[in-house]
Amino acid sequence: MNKPIRAMSIFCLVLFAALLLNTTYLQYFDADKLNSRSDNKRVRDAEFSRKRGAIVAGGSSVAESVPTKDQYKYQRVYKQPRKYAQLTGYYSYIYGRSGVEQSQNEILSGADPRLFVNRVVDMLGNAQPKGGSVSLTVNPKAQNAAYDGLRGLGRDAQAAVVALEPSTGKVLAMASTPSYNPNLLAGHKFSEVQRNYERLSKAKSQPMLNRAIQDTYPPGSTFKLVTAAAALSSGQYTPNTKVAGGTSLDLPQTTVNLPNEPGLDCGTTRITLTQALENSCNTAFGEIGLKLGDAALREQAEKFGFDQTYLEDLPGQVKSRFPANPDLPQTALSAIGQYDVAATPLQMAVVTAGIANGGTVMRPYVVDEVRAPDLSVLDKTNPEAFRSNAVSSSVARELTQMMISVVDNGTARTAQIPNVKVAGKTGTAQRGPDQPPYAWFVSFAPADDPKVAVAVFVDDPSVPRGEISGSGVAAPIAKKVMEAVINK
Amino acid sequence: MSAISAMRDRAFTHRRRRGAELFLLVISLVVGIGAYAAVGLGVEGTVPADIVGYGGWLAALCIGCHVVVRYTAPYADPVLLPIVAALNGIGLAMIHRIDLANLDANPQAQTFARDQLVWMTLGVVLFVVVMVVLRDHRRLQSLTYTCGLAAIVLLVLPLLPVIGTQINGARIWIRVGPLGFQPGEVAKVLLVIFFAGYLVLHRDALALAGRRFAGIDFPRGRDLGPILAMWLVSLGILVFQRDLGSSLLFFGLFLVMLYVATERPGWLVVGSAMFLVGAYLGYLAFGHVERRVDAWLHPFSAANATNAYQIIQGMYGMAWGGLVGRGLGQGDPTLIPFSYSDFIMASLGEELGLTGVMALLLLYGLIVERALRTALVCRDAFGKLVATGLGVVFALQVFVVVGGVTKLIPLTGLTTPFLSYGGSSLVANWVIIALLLRISDQARRPLPELTSPDEDDATQVVKLS
Predict the structure, then answer these.
(1) Which of A68, A257, A468, B165 is the 20 to 30 A CA-CA neighbour of B401?
(2) ipTM
(3) Interval B94-135: pLDDT, tens
């Protein structure tokens, strides 16, 4: 009987080998995945009672953990909570995380592989492991200007600002109003946190929505920059090419005409492309759209980042879009940023920064550096070109000149800064007949050596319909943000 | 030279190795009592106040076993007892640790460690009884059918009204007054003896007749009786007691012993096919089997939120433990339902880490290896079969329960030998170890010095036929 007994020994050996391999898989290879699941109470408890790293903007912390006497030992505290809420996000026991708290959780909680040595040292020293800190790219002055500008709007206004450094893609400012106080969600009295969360998530004004990246709006006339870029890149147009002016453009296949906004100088019949941009003439860009066709417009839009997500440091970026199959009238409307064209404020800032940077679109980023608990730098983000030739450098130069002319002579005079050349473009996007239009403004400065590109989006129902305009509402905010960056 | 003395000369003479056993036993006690102290340090920051009483009691039990083995089975395997002592000590420490966590949450919570120590004491008493009373395992062969009958009675008991109780969906308990008991654990031992006795008698018929197909000898149809009967018994356990684990265990045990007795792999083929059919029928017919399989395949799907809760918590615990564990008293094992019994392996994985789990699995593996080694050197067929059966049933049980907890196979309710809380299992496993020690003592003992008949001139041997 010894032969089958030997066979059974091998069989038992296989059983035990399977158990050993499987536990190795579970406790070593699969452990990280299991530990990062959001319903894993052990990890959440341990993380929650650990000294979480700080989130730093311009050298001072905007989110940090301070010791408390309750069972979780540390309380997350947000200084300037509403101003930085869209960047920091919240850190809640019940509702998890958002913003940088979410995207940089591994560093902040200390679970990152790069902090392995620190963890081992902490373990040997019987100390609680600590998290590393995250430095934001944000310029606090620009962020102040952006948030104060938005707060200066009416109480009902929903608005967002994004400022980028064109040469790197650094996000210098990002604000969205109405904002919220993340401290309300970080508390340790969970019933209170629950009430706060329900109130915030049910509020009609959607305070937890980061309008800068998580929602899209018709960009209106600011999209004419994309149309102009497509026109100049096609070789059929120069800034001096004559395009349709007058009061309205006859759209094919329909009896409806595309009118220009009253009070703008769009000439009588034919005007130059520069003049068309200066006065944001719908007739001219409608005609260009019809001539280039929707495919050329879409291609240009996608070169600037439409239909893609590229912001890795903040969760929830939505894609901006250009309609898939517009007919001819719809193509003409799309060319002026209406119909189904929709963009995030970040996307319009990226378009502007791309033009400012000579046609090279840098990937926007929010996290500049991550540091270990001992403040040694673990990683510094390298600026990276997202699209190296969205437009050629000569087209970028021509567009810049045209945008300077918009600020100097055209619709964007409110954005002028003394002794600094500013390039900009206004936008006023129509939506339903009874709703006030969206006001947009995009700009960069100084035009000859761009340090900052801004996009401002405002939806303010308290301003009378006739007074809403990119120039009147949005441009002054952009101007403040640009000044904050330039006047160091 | 006679055949017997020639065999004695050729055979490897085993040493007694009782000193080695004592040395290993001391190490095991250091591990077990050290774990108990570590629990106190981890949870309360001090060594438990009763460490001397507890450690003394544990040491007295283990050393007592050693002394009994020294006198009643001097050639027995020296490794088995220390392994069991270590496992039992670690199990007690872990159950005590979970008691402390439960008491912390609710001062009126039920505690288990004290009960478990009482059960262990009872197990040791039975161990001693077996060692003292049963001086030769072959005497069990005469009890073949008694054991079979007793096993059937024990398996049926939980189905009877009044004393049978259903706990957590499985009807495998009997309850007499305050005492709960799982007769299936004891039936396991009796079944091994019954199968061994039965197969020793009938193995020739089962082994020789048959037809050859595809290179494998398949048994005759009329010889399928016993395996068919066992298949039906296993299905009965599955149907009436809703106990997937025991059903699989008993059938697997029978199959392996049949194969070992007959040396015909054909039985394995036939049996595995029957097992697959039974398992599939069970899957189709019973919601609880289907739920278990579904919770195993898709633990994280929303539909399995309640079914897979336990296994997910167990996996989280083990992942949280990682390579070296959180340390005794430093984890959160009470998040896992039944962390002190069925899921004690997950609790240990959390606090002792992959390192600890591997050590425990290797201890189990060593028990199985020792049992099968005993079977190899054993000189009689009955002893070989009993040792193989006990070793394999142990291996299967560890595989089914640990594999279930670590999501290698669907979860079935079985106890983790010597570690998890449960009196019947602990007592039965101590008896298993006693039987293995008895058989190994017989197997390793040098053959008695017989005087060869032809050297004895005084006796005339007369050939009668």
Answers:
(1) B165
(2) 0.91
(3) 999 999 988 888 888 888 998 999 999 999 999 999 999 999
Q: Is B362 exposed, middle or buried (0-12, 13-18, 19+ CB in 10 A)?
A: middle
Residue A55, helix vs strand vs coil: strand
Task: Locate A20 and state its tokens.
Answer: 């050993």
The mean pLDDT of chain B is 86
Whole-number Å distance between alpha carbons of A451 and A26: 51
Nearest to A35 among B319, B392, B406 (CB): B319
pLDDT digits (tens, 9 = 90+) for A144-166: 999 999 988 878 889 999 999 99
Interchain pair B395, A4: CB under 8 A: no
Residues of B in contact with A28 (CB under 8 A): 322-323, 354
Q: Is the dihedral of CA B394, B400, B405, B408 positive or negative?
A: positive
10 Å Cβ neighbour count for B307? 19
Subunit contact A12:B402, Cβ cutoff 8 A: no
Number of domains within chain B: 1
Q: Is residue B42 part of a domain?
A: yes
Whether B465 is covered by a domain: the verdict is no
Whether B219 and B206 have beta carbons less than 8 Å apart is answered as yes
With contacts defined as CB-CB under 8 Å, which chain B residues touch A37? 300, 316
Domains of chain A, CATH where assigned: 220-367+382-486 (3.40.710.10)
- Domain containing B208 equals 3-447
Q: How many of the other CB atoms lie within 10 Å of CB of B347?
A: 31
Residue B379 lies in a domain: yes
CA atoms within 13 A on the CB side of A257: 10
Please name which of A187, A48, A31 lies closest in space to residue A105, comparing C-alpha atoms: A48
B86: in domain:
yes
Compute the nearest-CA separation of A34 from chain B (Å).
Answer: 6
Instruction: Count CB atoms within 10 A of the CB of residue B357.
Output: 27
